[in-house]
Amino acid sequence: MTDTDRLPILRYPDPRLHKVAQPIAAVDERVRAIVPRMLATMYAAQGIGLAATQVDIHERLIVIDVSEERDQPLVLINPELEWASPEKRKGEEGCLSVPGIYDGVERSVAVRVRALDGEGVSRVIEAEGLLAVCIQHEMDHLMGKVFVEYLSPLKRDRIKTKLVKAERAAHA
Ligand code: GNR
Ligand code: NI
């Protein structure tokens, strides 16, 4: 992948991160062209997942790769949560749209999701561990939700201030 394949990532508190993504009507050429660009963007940023919302595309499309070797791409189109374990665990999360910020979030330890893959084939994904966390984090993005919204208003405001200042400094 070359530089030009990548898409710019929106940064919190950009209001576009709170838009609700719409279902994808068909896995056609247009969608098939977005997927490799999202994967290139995710890999270049060294993320384990990326939701279309983060690249200002408000459609239900997610890419994930939680593998050590970065060679196991997953594409989830129109994902639907079929089941989430009642058992939850608090784990440290980060987000490419909230750079440099890490904090604990409670998530179900296991989930079952139905989604179309990159070929438009319906698949069921049963996930636990990091993959389960990542799927929940990405599905939140599609609903316009960023992980900092699980934190206290005080923490969230501090994060907002810090990122706005960092953004200003970068443009100065
Ligand atoms: O790269 C990422 N790492 C991560 C770590 C813990 C919990 C969730 C994530 S997802 C994040 C990439 C991202 O922002 N996806 O939306
Ligand atoms: Ni994120």
Map the helices and strands:
Elements: H1 29-44, E1 49-51, E2 61-64, E3 74-84, E4 88-93, E5 103-108, E6 110-116, E7 122-128, H2 129-142, H3 153-171
Antiparallel strand pairs: 1-2, 2-3, 3-6, 4-5, 6-7
This protein binds ligand GNR and nickel (II) ion (NI).
Give the strand order, joined by hyphens, for the main sheet. Answer: 1-2-3-6-7
**Mean pLDDT level:** 97
Bound molecules: ligand GNR, nickel (II) ion
Radius of gyration: 16 Å
Helix proportion of residues, in percent? 25-40%
The topology string of helices and strands comes to: HEEEEEEEHH
**Contiguous helical run count:** 3
Report, as a whole number of angstroms, the end-to-end distance: 31 Å
Characterise the protein shown here.
It is built from three helices and seven strands. Strand 6 and strand 7 form a beta hairpin. 28% of the residues lie in helices and 26% in strands. With 172 residues, it is α+β, with helices and mostly antiparallel strands. The protein has helices spanning 29-44, 129-142, 153-171, and strands at residues 49-51, 61-64, 74-84, 88-93, 103-108, 110-116, 122-128. The mean pLDDT is 97. Bound molecules: ligand GNR and nickel (II) ion. Residues 95-97, 137, 141 line the site of nickel (II) ion.
Quickly list its features.
binds nickel (II) ion, 26% strand, binds ligand GNR, five-stranded antiparallel β-sheet, 7 strands, alpha+beta, two-stranded antiparallel ribbon, 3 helices, single chain, 172 residues
Provide a brief overview of the structure:
The chain is of the alpha+beta class and 172 residues long. The protein has helices at 29-44, 129-142, 153-171, and strands spanning 49-51, 61-64, 74-84, 88-93, 103-108, 110-116, 122-128.
